[in-house]
Write a structure and sequence with these properties.
about 240 residues; single chain; Rossmann fold; alpha/beta; globular
Length: about 240
């Protein structure tokens, strides 16, 4: 009996690192479940994947809504690889000038949604005795920066969850890895720092490849670790 391909759920798959990772994983034989809030960019991405001989499927979902997260987990089916990549910047203003709605939305997308998806999907991984969770963090998670308060807070929460989950999963066969992309040539980076020259930054494709390598390594050496992807990619 032929072995079924691994299934990876990638949030925020329509652009940036999520898109690049989806293409790279599909090229390695993974069935990629693509999710974002709009169908058209996902459909375009799936066409690229299929043109290269890869497999994938689309689930349009708004991670801001609990009911949508639960529908996503149900429709995705058994997932071997969960990549919590979707994120919002949450504006660039002083923390005490940030509206409550902006703060809540940023935490909901960047921290609560990953928690909810892990809560829904990790038990299945544990039951099967294998799986990988990749949580995409940020350098401002470890050292907050002025006018990045909502984003910093949300990523710090994600880091804390990753550490707790890693401790709980020890010996289960399920790995949890946190990654920090660093400055990358993406739309979010351009939104955050519009005066920065994007050509000075590595592409999403370069930054995504180390994630593929981390997933491909099937032993437990990476479990519970936090990696700077630029270092793994050999980018200064």
């Amino acid at each position: 009996m032929s072995r079924q391909p691994a299934r990876a759920l990638i949030t925020g798959a329509s652009r940036g690192i999520g898109r690049a990772l989806a293409i790279a994983l599909a090229r390695e034989g993974t069935h990629v479940v693509l999710t974002a809030t709009s169908f058209e960019p996902l459909d375009s991405l799936l066409a690229v994947i299929q043109s290269q001989g890869g497999e994938g499927s689309i689930i349009v979902a708004d991670l801001l809504m609990r009911s949508e997260r639960h529908r996503l987990a149900q429709e995705a089916g058994p997932i071997d690889i969960l990549v919590n990549n979707a994120g919002v910047l949450g504006g660039r203003e002083r923390l005490y000038d940030t509206s409550l709605s902006t703060f809540e939305t940023t935490l909901e997308i960047n921290a609560v949604a990953p928690f909810d998806l892990m809560r829904l999907l990790v038990p299945g991984m544990v039951g099967r005795g294998s799986g990988t969770i990749i949580n995409v963090s940020s350098s401002v998670a470890l050292k907050g920066r002025g006018t990045w308060g909502a984003y910093s807070t949300s990523k710090a929460a994600l880091e804390g969850m990753s550490q707790s989950l890693s401790d709980e999963l020890e010996g289960s066969g399920v790995r949890c890895v946190t990654v920090n992309p660093g400055g990358t040539r993406t739309d979010m980076r351009a939104e955050a720092l519009p005066d920065e020259d994007p050509l000075t930054l590595p592409t999403a494709e370069l930054i995504a490849q180390p994630i593929v390598d981390l997933i491909a390594c099937e032993d437990d050496r990476h479990h519970g670790k936090r990696y700077n992807l630029r270092d793994l990619a050999g980018i200064a």
